[in-house]
Fold this sequence. Notes:
disordered C terminus, seven-stranded mixed beta sheet, Elongation Factor Tu (Ef-tu), domain 3, 29% strand, alpha/beta, Rossmann fold
Amino acid sequence: xxxxxxxxxxxxxxxxxxxxxxxxxxxxxxxxxxxxxxxxxxxxxxxxxxxxxxxxxxxxxxxxxxxxxxxxxxxxxxxxxxxxxxxxxxxxxxxxxxxxxxxxxxxxxxxxxxxxxxxxxxxxxxxxxxxxxxxxxxxxxxxxxxxxxxxxxxxxxxxxxxxxxxxxxxxxxxxxxxxxxxxxxxxxxxxxxxxxxxxxxxxxxxxxxxxxxxxxxxxxxxxxxxxxxxxxxxxxxxxxxxxxxxxxxxxxxxxxxxxxxxxxxxxxxxxxxxxxxxxxxxxxxxxxxxxxxxxx
Length: 296
């Protein structure tokens, strides 16, 4: 289900398209030509939707340099993403900063395995696309809780030499986790030159422990709590090889074998109760129209 703008020339930061990908996932496309012109795989932007909104970082899932648009896929799991989900086509976002962060290291490694879980597929897609364009053999392993929650399936197939699926309930692909599929590949003695792991921290941690003893270079895309996105606030600090770094300016991608995932997971839990309470109190701005197409 999607909505598209009928205007010929959109305004800066205007929503030009909105899609509902599944019961919990949405995609918005925004007119931001300066960001689209410079965007690279692995980078993110920070949205500030309204004057009193939080700053929210979201990784670019795609961009179109000719149309001047950037796209983001998200789930309404907190106050800010609920607010983002309330946007309609032709609404204007107050501020968008980006592209931020270092782009993914892209070159011809040989055989690159891209592993993504859940919403991580939105981040993994531009990485897999860039790796394919650089001449790599790309094997994608995509996971979700069930068949209904998979996203960008056609897009991932288009940029992968081989794509494998795993679902918690077995409704699509192998029953189990993406880590189980990786183990199956390794058991077949398939030579893997690099692994990109993108998804929940616990998943990336498990992948890192599988590849560590084999000496396979593994990159993790980290998603810590982030505020300013420019290295000044310190909120996104992570421990890499026992040294403090900032995901916004030093990352967001790091050597997975050097990441302190235990600390990262603990820090991500810091504001869960506050976020839950804030989300439950969310009210749409006065005068905002209700979207009739999918009950918003």
